[in-house]
Write a structure and sequence with these properties.
With about 90 residues, the protein is of the alpha+beta class. About 35% of the residues lie in helices and about 15% in strands. The chain has a two-stranded antiparallel sheet. The radius of gyration is 13 Å and the shape is globular.
Length: about 90
């Protein structure tokens, strides 16, 4: 099965997930209703459109065995990321 091309980088999808959390979305599909209809949300991240939640879910599943931390400055710009393998202790 060929993976569908989304046009979004892993970094952009991660930024979208952080923005969705900051907007109060509890599940990736919530962003379809909260942020997707608002073109300003996508433009704030420099995106042509907001990714569909199915793209975000696939992105999250790729990191199932890792914790991913993202640091943003006060304007929401990415400062850095850190990926830590999960362990039995969490």
């Amino acid at each position: 099965m060929q993976e569908r091309r989304t046009g979004f980088t892993h970094l952009q999808k991660s930024q979208v997930l952080v923005a969705a959390l900051a907007a109060g979305c509890q599940q990736s599909r919530d962003s379809n209703f909260t942020l997707s209809p608002d073109p300003v949300a996508a433009a704030a991240l420099g995106l042509p459109r907001w990714p569909h939640s199915s793209q975000l879910t696939r992105h999250l599943r790729a990191f199932g065995a890792q914790h991913v931390a993202v640091a943003l400055d006060q304007q929401g710009r990415l400062l850095g990321t850190r990926t830590i393998p999960t362990t039995a202790a969490g």
